[in-house]
Amino acid sequence: MDIIILLVVLVGSLGLAVIFGRYMARLITYEKRPLEKTMGQVENGFYRIIGVDRYEQMTWKQYFLAIVITNVIAAGFLMAVLLYQNNLPLSPKPGLSLDLAFNTAASFVTNTNLQHYAGEQQLSIFSQMVGLIFMMFVAPASGIAAAFAFIRGFIRKEFGLGNFYVDFTRIILTLLIPVAFFSALLLLFLGSPQTLDSTITMGTLQGGVQTIPTGPVASLESIKELGSNGGGFFSANSSHPFENPNGISNVFECILMLVIPLSLPIAYAHLIGKGRGVSILAAMMIGFGVMLALGLSESSGPAGLETRFGSFGSTLFLETSVATNTGAANAALSGMSPNAVIGFFLGMFVQAIPGADGTGMMMMIIFVILTLFLVGLMVGKTPEFMSMKINPRDVKLAAFVFLIHPALILIPTVLAYTTGSAHDTLGATTPATFTQVLYEYSSASANNGSDYLGTLANTPFWNWSTAWIMLIGRYAPIGLMLAVAGSFTLRDRKEVVEPIKTSGFLFVGVLSVMVFVLTALTFFPFLVMGPFSI
Amino acid sequence: MASKLLQTIFDKRMLKDSVTKLSPLYLAKKSPVMFTVEVGFFLVLAIGLLPTMSTEFVNENRVFYIESAVILIVTVWFATFSESLSESQARAKVDSLKNLEKEVMAKKLVDGKEISVKSTSLLVGDRVRVYAGEIVPRDGIVHSGKAFVDESMMTGESNPVFKEQDSPVMGGTKVANDSIVIEITSEAGKSFLDEMVGLIESAKRPKTKNEIALTILLAGLSLIFVTVVGTMLFFGYYLGYHMDISVLIALLVALLPTTIGGLLPAIGVAGINRLARDNIVVKSGKGIEAAGDCDVLILDKTGTITEGARRAIGFIPMEKFTEQDIGEASYAASFSDHTHEGTSIIELANEKKIEPPFMMEIMTARPVEFSSETRCSGIEFSQKKNLSGTQTPTLKTSLPRTRVCAKVEGLEESNIPVKILKGSVEAILKIATNVNEPELRWKAQEISKNGGTPLAVAINDEIIGLISLKDTLKKEIRTKLDEVRVSGITTVMITGDNQLTAQVIAKEANIDQIIAEAKPSDKLNRVVEEQLKGHVVGMIGDGTNDAPALAKADVGLAMNRGTAAAREAANMVDLDSDPSKILKVVKLGKQLLMTRGAITTFSIANDVAKYFAILPAMFMKDNPKMEILNVMQLHSPESAVLSTLIFNAIVIPILIPLSLKGVKYKPELPEKTFIKNMMIYGFGGVVFPFAGIKAIDLLLSVFMR
């Protein structure tokens, strides 16, 4: 049975990815899509409203700036909503504290969805619907747009990386909204509620009266999984029966989380070569396979797990959620086995197996560039990526991308201990609590969003520190990676044969080993001190 | 050999160099990795001297600190030693090369008198007189006098060129007759050996792009490891482990890519040095690296693929004549031609036992020199009626008469001056019309088809037949070219020959593409064209007209016998003037990059075992669960740390021979090379340190009880 479920998830997500990937390839090249006329008219309306010339092409700097500006505006709006939700309609609740509001805004704009609040208790329906659901479209759309621009860097020659506003609009209107809409309908059918009431009151079997929080759960849930967001309506996240009603919804949500990260390599395959795209997909799947194998190698629970999903259902969902940097959870992390936790860490350290919507793909290509650097040297050639020379600047930018991640995880973890915050929140330092602190920052830096601490971390220290890490962990790598693409787009394309094909078994093998070794060398001691010693 | 090696090792200057290079200032600038190790050394030394500085993070005994410090500084010294060693080898080579640098004596005119001076001392505007047989010392223009100048070494044109006042002459060409006064117009080229010395001296050596990229990567890795080890100190402390700063430093040093960081400069210099061993002077490091990337080689036919000296291989008579006839005529026509081709014709005739009966006339004949107008050469019989009258009968009796003989006699008798000339088919057709032209052309084409060059021979207006000249392929050129092709390099042959001949030679030597009937500008055009397609182009050249192409090409190898302009433009100069060495350069360039890649991979792969040696040593005392990581079962935590450090240090000298000699390079598919290198340096790099560290630990345990 377990194997069938696993197969359904893999086949379902890969099957959908093939369809989505083809569509994304058209979005990347601005080619004609089905229903182009109708969609074009709607989109043009939007361009007119925001005053964008849709034919303008941007350099990497302009593109990055456009992402940042859009995101800052969106985050500012969300922060205002959260701070002043007491004055806003739909079941108003007290406004959040400044640090919590900042943390939440940063968390949702960076596609992290680390939640230091309890949704059903602290947020109004307005905040959830207008604030969070809105942001759950903005954040993945920004990430996917960045990946589009990044891929264009390798297929275009000297005419910019595309137009962010156009990409952003088209991704939201023609990709995320339709899919999220139909997924929400399906979830509704499976049992998720969708209402503007904040509570339902009903009698219990014992004759008492019970108030159950509810709201527009289905619509939030669908984009939460599809957009690698992960922030739940309830603080229990996907273990809450409204968010994840049954086994079928559990499988469906897994598929939703995987579909966009997996369709980007397919789009890449359409644009840059079938073998190359499929090889990247294969390397991602190998990494994901290792995570799953780690998770399934040891039985988790039963404490902290939903009996509806059991060890397998929880492990499958959690490993998928962490691998895609979604961060949704259908079980308490503390109930998971140490091996499963090591699997989670692996996913967050690599960020590309398959990683979040858009950024996972970008990260994997950075791994590809670094792999090719070594491969080139090994066969006595100046390293090349797609027949373009890899120059010192690329290596410098790639090295920064790799340096930022451990620095953002390790240094703040040290700070959490030296300032005493970790001790205040979690008590005595043991491998288990160390794992929780390390996990918090890994999750923040990888823009993952799953965490052990939850509302425990609603203190100024955790709120401010994780907020800044999420912001740096999101925008610094995107900026660096766009800079790489920006310089590649200026480079000469050649018809030269690559010395080692960037496709096929050999390449997939080398790439996977490279991903694993680089990650292991950086993080091995911490896994030993943390989850391994529990 | 052994004593020679010892001699180089104990070269005083080198040892001094290796010690001065330990200066932190130098290391900070040149090798961030080694600098970090040295900082570690100072820290551990300080702890060893003042163990009371901290009770929290210092808990080993003093001997351990001093031992660790010593190993650390030795690690750094091994690195500087390897660099100094390769530098000293290269310096020795440069000294020996200096003798080979071309310098000729020139007769400088001072107040009308000739003074012998070295060519390098000449200044622009100086006048020198050059006599027949002498080499023109440098580029200039003819000031006075007229002469034929042999420019074959520059242009490949074997016919001497006429020069008169104001004609430009090229340095390195040879005056064939008479003497001319030349005004020097070009600056003495900055000696390229001086440029090479600059490449060897570390302070001046500019890093190549790949070196920079690799250094950045290594610096990035180092920063990551510094972050990792730095934060470990805190985590260990808060988790209740007994952390020791020196053990952490040991872990950091072990993780740092010290092997490649230490050997990187040595590898670069070794590349220059190995080329120098083949008498190739490198002017920029970029050139060697580009050589590794070369995927198009533009090769001159003459000198590179073929010997460059055409030899007669056959006499082909016209229908009316026999081989004997054309042999005799050719003999006569070549009698006063002392070029390589001319003598080869006489030799061929001798081989075939052909000797013209009219030897006397030939010997007394007036030579007809090659001129650029007629483009043919030969002899013209002196008109001495009496002499010929008396001699003819003797000839008649001693040898059987041939048609040629009869013709010569007939002409002499009718008192017509006899001219026996040879030259290209076109040239001879202009002066000799008595021939079946289609037959001649067909036969000439046959020769071309077999890769030969036809020369026609005529007696007055009648063409007797053709001589087939052929350039022979250089020894082993085919195997060499095949090797190059396997590694994915396209070869292009450039030649002045016609399409047919060029194709035949290309086929024989296994060349991919040809440019036949090439003009001098074709080389540059082809280089640019290939580069636009994204290829990395290597070429050789020696003439002044090659200079632009040499400068444009990614790898330009100039011949030492070539002009100063060519040597100036190229990024390498071959002192032996052997064009086929370009193939060697390509191989070396690949080896250089591969050596860097292999040692980098090895260095990073080593880290796996080092984690497994030091992490248990660090944590086992306080956390029994870590026992599982202790796969090597090392003697004690101290011995584990020390043996890891010793291993880390000793790998550098162990790999010095590899970095000086370079990784083995076999011409094969890149994929195969990659798998092989990955197995040896990647997989081997993971396994070897497990064995190495364990072995050192076993040794240490004897001393440590």
From TrEMBL, chain A:
Keywords in alphabetical order: Cell membrane, Hydrolase, Ion transport, Membrane, Potassium, Potassium transport, Transmembrane, Transmembrane helix, Transport
MF-aspect GO terms: hydrolase activity; P-type potassium transmembrane transporter activity
Enzyme Commission number(s) of this protein: 3.6.3.12
Listed Pfam families: KdpA (PF03814)
GO CC, any one term: plasma membrane
Top-level enzyme category: hydrolase
Coiled-coil region list: none
InterPro entries: KdpA
Xref: PANTHER family: POTASSIUM-TRANSPORTING ATPASE A CHAIN, POTASSIUM-TRANSPORTING ATPASE POTASSIUM-BINDING SUBUNIT
Protein name per its UniProtKB record: Potassium-transporting ATPase A chain
Originating species: Nitrosotalea devaniterrae
From TrEMBL, chain B:
Residues reported in the UniProt entry to bind ATP: D337, E341, F370, S371, S372, E373, T374, R375, C376, S377, K422
Molecular-function GO terms, alphabetical: ATP binding; ATP hydrolysis activity; magnesium ion binding; P-type potassium transmembrane transporter activity
Membrane topology: Multi-pass membrane protein
Keyword Ligase: no
GO CC terms, sorted: plasma membrane
Ranges of residues in domain P-type ATPase A: 105-201
Cytoplasm among keywords: no
UniProt-listed Enzyme Commission number(s): 7.2.2.6
UniProt-annotated location(s): Cell membrane; Membrane
Record-annotated active site: D300
Transmembrane segments: 33-51, 63-81, 212-239, 245-267, 597-620, 640-660, 680-704
The protein's enzyme class: translocase
Catalytic reactions on record: K(+)(out) + ATP + H2O = K(+)(in) + ADP + phosphate + H(+)
Binding site for Mg(2+): D542, D546
Cited Pfam families: E1-E2_ATPase (PF00122), Hydrolase (PF00702)
UniProt entry keywords in alphabetical sequence: ATP-binding, Cell membrane, Hydrolase, Ion transport, Magnesium, Membrane, Metal-binding, Nucleotide-binding, Phosphoprotein, Potassium, Potassium transport, Translocase, Transmembrane, Transmembrane helix, Transport
Coiled-coil stretches: none
Subunit structure: The system is composed of three essential subunits: KdpA, KdpB and KdpC.
Function of the protein: Part of the high-affinity ATP-driven potassium transport (or Kdp) system, which catalyzes the hydrolysis of ATP coupled with the electrogenic transport of potassium into the cytoplasm. This subunit is responsible for energy coupling to the transport system and for the release of the potassium ions to the cytoplasm.
HAMAP family xref list: KdpB (MF_00285)
Annotated family: Belongs to the cation transport ATPase (P-type) (TC 3.A.3) family. Type IA subfamily.
Name of the protein in its database record: Potassium-transporting ATPase ATP-binding subunit
Encoding gene, per UniProt annotation: kdpB
